[in-house]
Design a protein that fits this description.
Trna Endonuclease, Chain: A, domain 1, alpha/beta, 5 helices, three-stranded mixed sheet
């Protein structure tokens, strides 16, 4: 089969863009306003710098040196070009990660809320955040979302290897399985501190849009894509009675209100 693509080209794994969330348009306006403000500040800073330099020339009775300004301009241009390239790459990764988290969030909510599950998102910890936390009759689930771009024109998958996952044959720089374990442990500690109960928390890693091979049976972390993740949660072996669920959700809401 022939593919019309560039060698090494990659694409987002999210086929269907997530629906707009509450406040998205206001968030875009805030970003645009910040960009406009920064542009005005940069122009003002340049004018002030030019004025200062002219006063220095007048007070010291020295002539301006075009070679010195040319050197400064070349160095500044190179540094700015490097920064812009890095910023664009990072911005692209962040936008893709945000779309992945929103897609997973909307899928969890549409499938699980009607069955009595509560779904929380973006819970801040100490230097990290819990992407999604699901609380329901079958237990508590701390979910890490990993949105990696996929190669165009060939099959790719997430597989298990050497005690961790391989994404398209490569090991991520940060092990998602280890991250999920640490996140679940932090949630367990938070719930034990706030509810006074030892509540089990199942660590989950979701790779939206990827084909994920079955993990070893002895793996304590579920590694899935977003569709079977819902089935695994529904069939979870844990059990939370209605009173405990209400207590857990109430404590999570209080924690989030304190962080805002």
């Amino acid at each position: 089969m022939a593919y019309d693509h560039k060698p090494g080209e990659r694409r987002s794994p999210i086929k269907q863009k997530p629906l707009p969330g509450a406040g998205d348009s206001l968030r875009r306006e805030i970003v645009d306003s910040t960009d406009d403000t920064m542009a005005y500040l940069i122009v003002a800073a340049l004018l002030v710098a030019l004025a200062v330099m002219h006063w220095i020339w007048i007070l010291t009775k020295s002539a301006p040196s075009p070679w010195l300004f040319t050197l400064f301009a070349l160095v500044a241009a190179v540094l700015c070009a490097v920064k812009i390239v890095r910023f664009r790459r990072r911005a692209k990764r962040l936008i893709q990660a945000r779309e992945g988290e929103r897609a997973v969030a909307q899928h969890l909510e549409s499938e699980l809320r009607r069955e009595g599950y509560e779904v929380f998102h973006d819970i801040p910890g100490s230097g990290f955040n819990v992407d999604h936390l699901v609380v329901g009759p079958t237990g508590v689930f701390a979910i890490e979302t990993k949105t990696y771009s996929k190669p165009v024109g060939r099959e790719s998958r997430v597989a298990w290897g050497g005690g961790g996952v391989l994404v398209d044959g490569r090991r991520p720089s940060r092990c998602p399985v280890r991250q999920a374990r640490a996140t679940a442990q932090w949630v367990r500690g938070l719930l034990a501190e706030t509810t006074g109960k030892p509540i089990a928390v199942q660590p989950v890693v979701i790779f939206p849009g990827w084909f994920v091979e079955p993990m070893p049976r002895d793996c304590d972390v579920w590694v899935l894509n977003e569709k079977p993740a819902v089935t695994f949660i529904r069939n979870g072996r844990g059990h939370l009675d209605e009173t405990t669920r209400a207590q857990v959700c109430g404590q999570i809401r209080q924690y989030l209100s304190r962080q805002s």
